Amino acid sequence: MSRIIIAGAAQLGPIELDTPRKAVVQRMMELMREAHSKGCNVVVYPEMALTTFFPRWWFENQEEVDVFFERSMPNPDVAPLFELAQKLGVGFYLGYCELAEEDGRQRHFNTSILVNDKGKIVGKYRKVHLPGHAEHKPQDPWQHLEKRYFEPGDLGFPVWRTMGGVMGMCLCNDRRWPETYRVMGLQGVEMVLLGYNTPQLDQLGGEPAFIRVFHNNLSMQAGAYQNGTWVVAAAKAGNEGGIDMMGGSCIITPQGEIVAAAHTFDDELVVAKCDLDECRFNKENIFNFAAHRQIHHYKLITERTGAVAPTEDADA
Ligand code: ING
What we know:
The protein is of the alpha/beta class. The chain is 24% helix and 27% strand.
């Protein structure tokens, strides 16, 4: 039996500080139309798809920061995308900056939503792993201030049974952490949708570009293979805000193979035919969690945050 989903990773090229949301939404709609013409059932847009990746800069005042956030979703700027998607019967993942009024205060999250092929928001995720730093580092060529501008996500790593399969979401740095995929894997995830904004180089020159590409692929291929799930990943790419952002949007099989990938740093749709039943082999054999996991040996994973090495010298 086959359960086919044709997935599209809708990579976006640069979005600048002064790029209006409406212009970005038009580009996203163009990619949605292309996806529909190629039979896609679901389209993945990048993290922070509506604006430039503003955490590369230091902003002193909250008012300057809040302009990058959406106070409601959907809203007038993105409504045309929602309407087109519903008309075409295509679901989508959208990464955006969420300004929420909760618990009597304003909360700022790096968020994604999952919209089904009927136009219904079926799921929301808030980025758990915030990389970088909260303090200003003026000596660095650029900043990475997600810890200043966002709270860590408070929704965990949920999955949803939608569009014929079990889908989950994560955002950018989350894709580097095995816990991200395993928590969704323990809920039977069959397709992980994710967007990212990743500089081609780190600001201190510690990693060459080729190793960044290697790590990008390694992290997602391992997550797919070790949990028997498809991964559909969409980058924000190209020279944005003066920083070269990596592309590499791709679609990865439950066996960890990259079956389709972007080859530009611009708006580009990557498409693959994904049979969700291909997840079964790993889930029922080598990664049959119920048959093989020994969770009484894994306690440190949830009880200890930072690493603690032994002090005793075993050779003494
Ligand atoms: N960006 C980067 C990412 O995890 C990063 C930050 C790059 C961390 C390279 C470590 C190494 O892809 C975001 N937005 O998380």
